[in-house]
């Protein structure tokens, strides 16, 4: 099957849509701009494959090994990626809107400037993963667990669900989290400098030792929030209720208080 696919591709054929390619071994192949929309690639070996600008809309990629592959600017909207290995995979500028990504391995995965609107993403293998400049509006990231640094610098997370996520030491500098669900999230030692948290629900979250300097928390729900030893210098806390928040050792210099 691999030889047939590659012969067709080198002959100028790009349409492999709706094919059943379960278990196919395409390791190391160049498949730029190929169309695999609606195709079944379950348990395929796609290690080190160049799928940049490819179309994988609604493709089944369950248990696929995509480690070290290039999917920059590819379309994976509504694709199914259960148990997928995305180690060191490049997904820069990729469209993953409404994709389902479950139990994925995300070591060194790059989602920079990608669109992940309304994506469902659960993983307990996040390490050195980057979402910088990505759009995760209304994404469901509930319960994700990072084992190393996660970068979400200038990331759009408006109305996203991050309840119970474990994102200690994550970098969310200038992230947009308006109206986001952050109940019981662990953001200890995280960086949220200049982040927009207006109207976010952060009840019961742990932001101990976090850097929230110049962040905007206007109207956010801060009930039972742990802000001990957090840096809130210049933060906007207007229209919030800090009565049950733990502010032990917090830096409130120049903060706008309720």
Q: Can you describe what's shown?
A:
The chain is mostly loops. The protein has 1 helix and 7 strands, in the order αβββββββ. It has a 3-stranded parallel beta sheet with strand order 1-2-4, with no helix packed on it. A two-stranded parallel sheet has the order 3-5. A two-stranded parallel ribbon has the order 6-7. The N and C termini lie far apart (66 Å). The model has no long low-confidence stretch (mean pLDDT 96).
Give the secondary structure arrangement, pairings included:
Elements: H1 2-10, E1 80-82, E2 100-102, E3 106-107, E4 120-122, E5 126-127, E6 129-130, E7 150-151
Parallel strand pairs: 1-2, 2-4, 3-5, 6-7
What would a concise description of this structure say?
With 258 residues, this protein is largely without helices or strands. The protein is 3% helix and 7% strand.
What is the CA-atom radius of gyration, in angstroms?
Answer: 20 Å
Structural class of the helix and strand makeup? little secondary structure
Strand neighbour order, sheet with most strands: 1-2-4
Shape: elongated
Order of helices and strands: HEEEEEEE
**What is the average per-residue confidence, as pLDDT, rounded to a whole number?**
96
Descriptive keywords:
little secondary structure; 3-stranded parallel β-sheet; two-stranded parallel sheet; 1 helix; 7 strands; 7% strand; elongated
């Amino acid at each position: 099957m691999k030889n047939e696919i590659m012969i067709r591709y080198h002959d100028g054929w790009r349409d492999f849509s709706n094919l059943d390619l379960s278990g196919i071994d395409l390791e190391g192949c160049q498949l730029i701009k190929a169309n695999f929309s609606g195709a079944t690639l379950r348990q395929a070996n796609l290690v080190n494959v160049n799928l940049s600008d490819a179309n994988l809309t609604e493709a089944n990629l369950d248990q696929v090994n995509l480690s070290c592959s290039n999917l920059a600017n590819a379309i994976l909207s509504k694709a199914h990626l259960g148990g997928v290995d995305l180690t060191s995979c490049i997904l820069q500028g990729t469209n993953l809107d409404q994709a389902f990504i479950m139990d994925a391995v995300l070591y060194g995965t790059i989602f920079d400037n990608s669109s992940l609107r309304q994506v469902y993403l659960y993983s307990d293998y996040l390490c050195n993963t980057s979402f910088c400049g990505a759009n995760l509006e209304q994404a469901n990231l509930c319960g994700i667990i990072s084992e190393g640094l996660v970068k979400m610098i200038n990331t759009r997370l408006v109305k996203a669900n991050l309840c119970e996520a474990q994102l200690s030491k994550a970098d969310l500098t200038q992230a947009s989290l308006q109206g986001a669900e952050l109940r019981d999230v662990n953001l200890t030692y995280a960086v949220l400098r200049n982040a927009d948290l207006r109207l976010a629900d952060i009840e019961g979250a742990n932001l101990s030792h976090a850097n929230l300097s110049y962040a905007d928390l206007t109207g956010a729900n801060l009930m039972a929030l742990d802000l001990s030893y957090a840096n809130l210098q210049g933060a906007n806390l207007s229209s919030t209720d800090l009565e049950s928040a733990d502010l032990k050792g917090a830096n409130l210099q120049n903060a706008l208080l309720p």
